[in-house]
Design a protein that fits this description.
With about 250 residues, the chain is of the alpha/beta class. The chain contains 9 helices and 5 strands, in the order H-H-E-H-H-E-H-H-E-H-E-E-H-H. The N terminus is likely disordered.
Length: about 250
């Protein structure tokens, strides 16, 4: 039996716009473990947020529909995106990422607290291979693969303008490469390995008119940032490199 995803692409015509894709995505109930967890977290809440209404649904991508730079994470945080309804918003990982995006000239402000806080991304969109918060921040391979069609269609809709991708962490790297290959970009052989600062140019094909720059960056998890393995400056440097590859304007 195929998983059910509400009014999503598994049922009929694929969405024609990112707005349609996002509307379909938030109704997805395809992964029972993730549905149960995201809703449990939304009911029980963290004490610091007990007076807030949690989003408790799949979290769509964030950023303009004509983005030339895409950032690919892992999955929403239980009390971050699963609470606020926006990628990397309201948690420590987002504190680092959005501060780096601001320093790179890709965000209107260095903080992200809630939808409606005035945050705007410039030429940049943020998404993830898994759109529901997973227990212990660890989606299963089956959950990753079940969620894959959302990423495939997001990439297809972005492809006319997309020139550069930054992948945060090895999970996203492994999830994205086969999706890029299926979408028509050429993946080098042997398959490129993830690493911080890795840069791979995926050649254009008949299916994809423009080449795509792929960059690796350690994930902005607390484990990485609290230990000093990853700093805001390191993230900013990768973002600037990716922005240049995407021909986005950088601050002087």
């Amino acid at each position: 039996m195929k998983p059910t995803c509400g009014k999503g692409p598994l049922h009929g015509t694929p969405p024609a716009t990112l707005a349609e894709l996002d509307d379909a995505l938030v109704d997805c109930h395809a992964c029972p473990r993730l549905v149960a967890w995201r809703e449990q977290v939304a009911r029980e809440k963290r004490a610091a947020f007990r007076d807030e209404e949690y989003w408790g649904r799949p979290v769509p991508g964030f950023g303009p529909a004509d983005a030339s730079l895409l950032i690919v994470g892992l999955a929403p945080a239980a009390h971050g995106g699963n609470r606020t309804g926006r990628m990397f918003t309201g948690d420590r990982s987002g504190d680092v990422l959005y501060a780096a995006l601001y320093d790179a000239g890709l965000a209107s402000q260095p903080t992200a607290t809630h939808i409606g806080d005035g945050l705007e991304l410039f030429g940049t969109r943020i998404t993830s291979p898994v759109h529901c918060a997973p227990p212990a921040n660890r989606p299963t391979v089956v959950e990753r693969d079940t969620c894959r069609h959302w990423l495939e269609q997001e990439l297809d809709l972005l492809s006319p303008t997309l020139r550069s991708v930054v992948v945060l962490g090895g999970f996203g790297w492994q999830a994205l490469l086969p999706v890029l290959s299926a979408a028509g970009w050429t993946i080098p052989v042997p398959r490129p390995k993830f690493g911080h600062g890795a840069h791979v140019l995926l050649a254009a094909t008949e299916a994809r008119e423009h080449p795509l720059h792929l960059f690796g960056c350690y994930h902005v998890s607390q484990q990485n940032t609290f230990t000093g393995r990853l700093t805001k400056e390191m993230v900013t440097e990768v973002l600037r490199d990716a922005a240049r590859a995407a021909s986005l304007p950088l601050p002087g």
